[in-house]
Amino acid sequence: MRRFLLRLANLAGGGKAERELAREIEGHLTLLQENFERRGLPPEEARLAAKREYGGIEQAKELHRAERSFVWVEQFFKDVRYGWINLLRNPGFTLVAVTALALGIGVNATIFGIYNAVALKQLPVADPGRVVRLERWFERDWRGDIQYNFAYPEYQYLREHNSVFSGLTAASFEVPVMASIGREEVAEHLAGHAVSANYFADLGVPTRIGRTFLPDEDRIPGANPVVVLSDEFWQRKFHGDPNILGQTIKLNGLAYTMIGVAPEKFTGTDVMPTRCDFWAPLSMIDQLDAAFGPMEEWRDATAHPQFEILARLKDGVAREKAQAETELLMRQYLSGYREINRTKSITLQRTAYFGNTEDPRFQASVAGVLMVVSLVLLVACANVANMLLARGAMRQREISVRMALGASRARIIGQLLTESVLLALLGGAAGLLLSVWASKLLWTSVSGIFEGFQGLRTDLDVSADGHVFLYGFALALVTGVVFGLAPALQFTKPDLNTAIKQEGAAFGARLSRSKLRGLLLGAQVAVSVLLLMTGGELISRLVSSGTSDPGFQTRDTYFLTTNGDPAKAQVTGRNLRERLEALPELSAVSMGTAPMMGTYSPWMKAGKLDRQTLASYASDGYLDALGIALLRGRSFTRQETNRGAPVAVISESTARSFWGDADALGRHFSLDLQFQNKFTDFEVIGIARDVRFANIAMIDPLHVYLPADGSQLRSAGALVFRIPGNREKAIGAVQSAVGSVDASLLPGMAIFNVEDGPLATQRNLIRVTETFAGVLTLLSLTLAGVGIYGVMSFLVSHRTREIGIRMALGATSSTVLRGVMAQGLRPVLAGTLIGFGASAALDSLIRAVVAIPGSTNLLQSTFGDLSLYVELALVLFVAALACVVPARRAMRVDPMVALRYE
Amino acid sequence: MPSDDRMVVLQGTLDLIILRTLESMGQQHAYAIATRLQQVSDDLLHLNQGTLYPALVRLEQQGRIKGTWGKTESNREAKFYAITKAGEKALAEETARWRRMSGLVEKLLSEGA
Asked: What is the pLDDT of residues B6-49, one digit of tens each?
């Protein structure tokens, strides 16, 4: 240990030790010399004899160094210093290379940063490594949020019987309420969570001011109207005023005392991190959310899985053990119940901000995106490698001399790699800075989509943390080796003589590596063009689907969703419809599924065919309200709607794919409505025109409309109507009409315009993807430009001497220029052609693989697109420019200077 | 060049030899140590004098010897090494181990015959 420290110390103060060693050796040699002189040798010879007796001085020094300290570390520092000097000596090259790498690493770090925030970062609770989120797995593979739903009795059972958790907390999913403060007239929509009283205490979340819930505050139903506010809401509404503690806020008409404010970082634990305004004790949930139904129902039945469970592991208990016990307890508990879909197993998940991040499908899509962006990085690497190669021609001589002087090949490769890693680290640092900013931007646009989508206000901290920095660092390290290795191996190829001579060789020297460089340049152009074409194609496809017509009325079509007691949904729905029909401001009032929001996909059987179809509910008048034309047959009558008759209207694509050219009217099919393998029979009474009901990007491949009897009002349906005139007035009238039917519906009610709501959301999603593809395309274009320019100008400037001599011999500038262009542009042209061909091949492959019936529009050809040719022309222009600028510079050089140029 | 009957110092024994030399002769500089080694071995030991230095720095870092700058009889500057308490202890242990080891090897060789 002591020795290790001393060696370390010698690393730092190597100079002193080195001087002492020299002194000591000198002394030793002198003594030896004196000895030889005494034996009668003349001083000169005595000195030589002394040296012989001593052995190799430098070798001994090197051994001493190795013994004294860690030689490789010393060498490494020397390499770094040398590399740094080299980079500073060529600021132009360094700048270009760092820029290329920064873009490449930046875009990768950005994507990883988002992934990190979504799936890797942990909730801001005390010791988050010991806190787990319970997730259940179903026998029939239901995935998504539903895996985090637990019933209250399940929670209670686990809490009472487990021996592995030091705390078990329950939190409801988002509860929407209407809030008013003080004497304010206008009520405001807020969202909060009802949580068990130990929620804050067991998660280890202190309050910013005030207190959290007392242990017994969730015992007696309705008895403790207190709330803890979120910091965001406290700042927004009360401007951070601490005096609000003890005052009240009215939620759904009931006054709650504000007892505390949560810390700024803590924004809730929901698997979909939505913005949360407050937390209330679990016992207040009936008052907060009418949809929960009477207390005895959700308290005592497993049929209402409404809570997320977070648990803290006891000290010293491993997660596997806790998981095994939880699973066992749940099995014991559930053995007495018949579940709709049996719970197969329970897992304890680490507490990431989002749920389901371990889902392989999610992982796969993340991997896909990362692969695309690493392609960009690859182009950047090729760029820099190529520039290094071009530059290497100039360094060849230096390297050869060093090798001739006895430096080992490994030592020189190490030194060159150190230099390229240094370059990559610079690029990585710049890229990380870039990504910090880009992640924010990307997340803002993504969360904008979430917000448009069912009004989810997400709240996620995407700032970079250690993971992101580590990722960027590792990426830079790998990058440095990837682009540095090939040139380093090339330069150190052991044929010293030719290399030393070559640099000074006569003019017209075709550099031996020019073939490799041309190949790399061509390949790089090919990859860039491939990215460019594919990206451009993706964009124009998105543009065409983003602007496409959904096929039904969206502009003045509205729908209204509520969140009432499910048991009363059928009655409520009919009452609402009757009341709204009476309003003169509305027309075409009907009931049915909200387009682009509420569809689902049951299995459909007819004859031998068995496929998953889109299904939605429609009342009489629904197809008219949306303006979906009937091609044959008829729509539902009110009577059929009210009794939920076994009849259906199907889309023309559905008719075609199930019955071909035969008449589908009067045919029968069956649907597995509840996903329980119980099929219900329906008769086809009408055929409707194809629309893009669920996804603006494609026409529904299959779609059946079923009669809406009103019971779907909560789960998948809504009231649909048109507002031909003034919308504010009409919406006001709708609100008071709903209030007069049932005032408890108001907090959970929402009115959407199809155009501004879900359609805009989908278009936004397309726009963001478009922008993303655009940025990637632009990036690869920039990189291609930078790379081509860098390599070409190096190549041409290397011919300065040759050009000078040619000019001196009387060549005209145009002949020289033509020669340079012909040589330089050849690989670029070849690369362009290859890239073009490859993207055409890729395009037809995509067409062959992702053929979606009926969605011809999505796969329209883009090779007629002008913008692509403009981009291609730009690539060629950059290449030409990169030839011309240095060539002109070379031509202006005085021949005498050129001859002396080295 | 080492002739055939000159021996190369056995791996790991150089430290032991240096410690022993310093113990019996007191404070010495590297040249004197080298000379002494050659004398004692009747020039049978082949030693590049430069190879002493790595061993010296290792021993010094291990705290078994201590070096101080001083003057030789001919008034030359040199670094003098002296054995420390820890060095004496290590020498005793190493000597005992060496004896056991060489005894064992000796035994094996004679029995094998």
From this structure: 565 665 678 888 888 888 888 888 888 888 887 877 776 666 67
What stretches of A697-762 adopt beta strand conformation (E)?
A: 703-707, 717-722, 750-753
CA distances to A95, A109, A381, A427 from A98, in Å: 5, 15, 11, 4
Check A28 against B78: CB less than 8 A apart: yes
Q: What letter does residue A757 receive in the DSSP assignment?
A: I
Residues A616 and A652: their CA atoms lie apart, in Å, by 15
- Run of H or E including A818: helix A813-849
- Per-residue 3-state assignment (H helix, E strand, C coil) for A517-557: HHHHHHHHHHHHHHHHHHHHHHHHHHHHHHCCCCCCCCCCE
B65 to A238, A599, B90, B91, B96: CA distances (angstroms): 74, 85, 11, 11, 19
This model of the complex carries an ipTM of 0.71
Confidence bin at A429 (pLDDT 50/70/90): very high
pLDDT at A257: 92
Nearest to A195 by CA among A226, A169, A214: A169
Comparing CB atoms, the residue among B29, B50, B55 nearest residue A56 is: B50
Asked if residue A163 lies in contact with residue A328, where contact means CB atoms within 8 angstroms, the answer is: no
Q: What pLDDT was estimated at residue A755? A: 82
Q: How far apart are CA A362 and CA A366, in angstroms?
A: 6
Indicate the pairing of strand A703-707 with strand A647-651.
antiparallel
Please tell me whether the overall predicted TM-score, pTM, comes out greater than 0.80 for this model.
Answer: no
pLDDT confidence of residue A859: 35
Beta carbons of B61 and A3 less than 8 Å apart = yes
Identity of the residue in A6, A23, A60 whose CB atom sits nearest the CB atom of B77: A23
**Higher pLDDT, residue A635 or A752:** A635
Residues of chain B contacting residue A21, judged by C-beta atoms under 8 Å apart? 53
pLDDT in tens, A768-802: 777 777 777 777 777 777 777 777 776 666 677 77
Is residue A381 within 8 A of residue A155, CB to CB? The reply is no
For residue A108, give how far its alpha carbon lies from the nearest alpha carbon of chain B (Å): 47
Which amino acid is present at A442?
L
The dihedral formed by the CA atoms of A532, A533, A534 and A538, expressed in degrees to the nearest 10: 100
Query: How many angstroms away from the CA of A64 is the closest CA of chain B?
Result: 4
Instruction: Give me the mean pLDDT over the A41-46 stretch.
Output: 83
